[in-house]
Amino acid sequence: MIELKQLTKHFEKFTALKNVDLKIETGTAFGLLGSNGAGKSTIMRLLSGIYRADSGEALIDGENVYDNVAVKQRVFFIDDETVQFSGYTLNKLKEYYKSYYPQFSDEIFDKLRRKLSLPLDKKIGNFSKGMKRQAIVIIGLASCTDYLFLDETFDGLDPTMRVIVKSMLVDAILDRKVTAIISSHNLREINELCDHAALLHNGRLVLSQDIDSLKGEFHKMQLVFRPDENGKEVEYTRDDIESIGIDVLHFEKTQRVYRIVAKGDEETLKAAFAAKRPLVLDVIPLTLEEVFIYELEVLGYDCSEINN
After folding, report:
1. 158 and 124 in contact (C-beta within 8 Å)?
2. Looking at domain 2-209, which CATH architecture does it have?
3. Is a pLDDT exceeding 90 seen at residue 185?
4. What distances in angstroms separate CA 159 from CA 130, 155, 236, one per listed residue?
5. pTM of whole model > 0.90?
6. Architecture of the structural domain at 217-299
7. 234 contacts: CB under 8 Å, gap ≥ 6
């Protein structure tokens, strides 16, 4: 298990993380979401032992990571930067990491390299951005660690390569029970890969929850209400809807059509709306992107940078 306890990290006057508590179960594909600067990369660097926490703890299976070689050998961090590998060929990069990771598998490395058709003796600095990402993903998977952290790893990959690399990652999670943390500001990508996600904003944890149950708690409802006994349209406000026990996250009206995003069980919401005798009541599925945006709006956060 990965556990963050009141984790805080400062960089001079900037607070990257503030009192973050988070648990990630073994074998989970876990998504870290948030805009640039939310704290996603900082969490990964703390869990990789690159940074030391200013306060709180970053624990893997109950052990602090910083200056702990035995724990670090069970972790591989795929950074969003690859410039540090520019002078290496893929073959030399493999030998470099084999010296640090005792479980490194030449068999997995060769299989994945052939799948992506990457050259062994060409300097990585001469690779395209997408090829550089592919190269370090291969190294990460071949290192056979228990924990794999991927920071915006799919940026720079064309659609075909995204599918291939995602497939390789899913195979590792299923076959070896790898615990993967995947950071992204792209909610659609997280929805495809992860079964659990946390949302960070300005260094704070906004929420952490199973994705399926999270989406099941929010519903977009489209309603048209009956006119009164005189045939006159009845006008409802947000307060009117909330007065019947609806937890309203978003409310809008266009002509006679109301669009309401509410939090709660679908059948409970339908039963509450029945008191208003709607003529039309349609439930429209929400995307993960919409769920987080509406949740952020309710909490008073600016969500304009999420998913950009």
Report:
1. no
2. 3-Layer(aba) Sandwich (3.40)
3. no
4. 11, 10, 46
5. no
6. 2-Layer Sandwich (3.30)
7. 225, 226, 227, 228
